[in-house]
Write a structure and sequence with these properties.
alpha+beta; binds zinc ion; three-stranded antiparallel β-sheet
């Protein structure tokens, strides 16, 4: 066998090898991309399913409650912004607290109750105040 043939064969083998390994790498990349896409899609599906189970109470500062009444309220900012279901802590009558946002949310009922709360009648100063006594 003349030496030139050996060189050509080697070159052919190398290019075939490069082609194959390149093809494998590309195939792997495509599979990884497909996997990422599927994960993203399933994540979105999970979130869509979650949102379909919840109801937004806009009057109650956008708190979310479960439609079946089995949970809530959840922080609307966490859901809209981070797609996370954060149960809020009950911080008093009609007041709920999101520990992620460190923010209080009040129901409409609670806000109205506070607005209608009778103001303290006796001023501390003036004719009838304790300072006048
Ligand atoms: Zn939050």
């Amino acid at each position: 066998m003349p030496p030139i043939t050996g060189v050509v064969e080697k070159k052919l083998f190398e290019s075939a090898w490069n082609f194959l390994t390149g093809w494998f790498t590309r195939k792997k990349q495509v599979e990884m991309l497909k996997h990422e896409l599927a994960e993203e899609r399933s994540g979105r599906l999970v979130f869509e399913k979650l949102m379909s189970e919840l109801e937004c109470y806009q009057d109650d500062e956008n708190m979310y409650w479960r439609k079946d009444g089995k949970g809530g309220p959840y922080c609307g900012i966490c859901l809209d912004h981070d797609q996370k279901k954060t149960p809020m802590t009950h911080a008093g009558k009609g007041t709920f607290y999101c520990c992620i946002h460190k923010q209080y949310f009040r129901t409409k009922e609670c806000r109205e109750r506070e607005e209608n709360r009778p103001q303290p009648k006796q001023p501390s100063y003036g004719e009838h105040g304790w300072m006048a006594r």
